[in-house]
Q: What sequence folds into this?
């Protein structure tokens, strides 16, 4: 999958892929989330996709279900020391599925990628004149 990253002005940096644009910004303009915030949000939303899929496969209602993500940065580095995902369910949600919901969220591809990080290769290339 290829993504095109461009610089539309100010502190903005956008990613374009599959016909979508993910806009990011820095706090000085604050017109969009910061890139690191988008990265963190991808963890919770990915877990949410798996929880949603689990519920849909079993015809379980998702009304009232939400995931609260708590991010704990290291004060010295700003890097995340710990991330908690708490799946909150309404009292009517069948208790027999609580553990299975956790297992579903743990299948998240973003989480698994963080647990087994990819290698990075950053290069430059001179583009041909248009």
A:
């Amino acid at each position: 999958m290829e993504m095109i990253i461009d610089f539309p002005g100010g502190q903005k940096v956008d990613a374009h892929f599959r016909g979508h644009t993910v806009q990011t910004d820095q706090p000085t303009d604050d017109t969009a989330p910061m890139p690191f915030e988008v990265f963190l949000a991808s963890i919770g939303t990915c877990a949410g996709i798996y929880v949603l899929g689990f519920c849909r496969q079993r015809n379980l209602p998702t009304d009232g279900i939400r995931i609260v993500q708590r991010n704990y940065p290291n004060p010295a580095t700003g890097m995340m020391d710990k991330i908690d995902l708490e799946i909150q369910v309404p009292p009517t949600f069948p208790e027999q599925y609580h553990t299975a919901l956790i297992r579903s969220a743990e299948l998240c591809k973003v989480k698994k990628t963080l647990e087994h990080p990819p290698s990075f290769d950053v290069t430059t290339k001179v583009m041909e004149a248009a």
Notes: The two ends are 24 Å apart (CA to CA). The first helix runs from residue 35 to 57. The longest strand covers residues 80-88. The domain at 33-115 is CATH 3.30.300.20 (GMP Synthetase; Chain A, domain 3).
